[in-house]
Amino acid sequence: QVQLVESGGGVVQPERSLRLSCVASGFTFNNYPMYWVRQAPGRGLEWEAVISNDGSQKFYADSVKGRFTISRDNSKNTLYLQMNSLRTEDTAVYYCARDNKEVLGGGKYYYMDVWGRGTTVIVSS
Amino acid sequence: DIQMTQSPSSVSASVGDRVTISCRASQGISSWLAWYQQKPGKAPKLLISAASSLQSGVPSRFSGSGSGTEFTLTISNLQPEDFATYYCQQAHSFPYTFGQGTKLEIK
């Protein structure tokens, strides 16, 4: 069964750090790029970061660039999000998601087809 | 960054109705668009990729259309389990961006 399970959330003070993990099972993890997406309380979805299947390429949203680092350990089927200098506005449910693609008419169309249940991060003094 | 704007922000409808949700991109994204459904306290669920390609297991009452900057998600014959929030998302270029969401409520 294809599954993603996040962990590592909690309550943390502003300016502190936290590392989230996402363990994958049921598929060949190192074949897929992976994402982190977050959702602040009562708000919409916000894309945060992506990492290529081999970890060589990473992209970040401006809101977390320079503070958050996405990484992966393919030997452990695990995705990470290192979050430093946390702010109150980083309070959210953090989801990991798998990238997949569909080839249609010679084009490749990307989407997030598997999501974890999320882990909650609360940044508060 | 590409901005995605959904309309309406919320809509009320009855079981059996047909509902249309619009999504506009701030620049052309061809068909690099996906639609997701999210229920309270749950992770998003992929419905449609490539603007109109229905995912396996998703009921055929869901359909997507559009290309370029204008896209539509249509739900025909609304069922009780369809009442949720719907998001569009562009996959044309990083950073990927979502629309602000459309909440579909029971009338």
Looking at this protein, list some descriptive labels:
heterodimer, A: 125 residues, mainly beta, 7-stranded mixed β-sheet, 4-stranded antiparallel β-sheet, 11 strands, 57% strand, globular, B: 107 residues
Describe the structure.
The complex is a heterodimer of chains A (125) and B (107). With 125 residues, chain A is mainly beta. Helix content of chain A is 0%, strand content 57%. Chain A is built from no helices and 11 strands. In chain A, the strands form 2 sheets. In chain A, strands 2, 4, 5, 6, 9, 10 and 11 form a 7-stranded mixed β-sheet that branches. Chain A has a 4-stranded antiparallel β-sheet with strand order 1-3-8-7, with no helix packed on it. In chain A, a hairpin with a 4-residue loop joins strand 7 and strand 8. Chain A is globular, with a radius of gyration of 14 Å. Chain A starts with a strand and ends with a strand. Chain B is mainly beta and 107 residues long. Chain B has no helices and 11 strands. Chain B has strands at 4-7, 10-13, 19-25, 33-38, 45-49, 53-54, 62-67, 70-75, 85-90, 97-98, 102-106. In chain B, strands 2, 4, 5, 6, 9, 10 and 11 form a 7-stranded mixed β-sheet that branches. In chain B, a hairpin with a 6-residue loop joins strand 4 (33-38) and strand 5. Chain B is globular, with a radius of gyration of 13 Å. Chain B starts with a strand and ends with a strand. The chains are: A mainly beta (125), B mainly beta (107). The interface between A and B is medium-sized, with 24 and 27 residues.
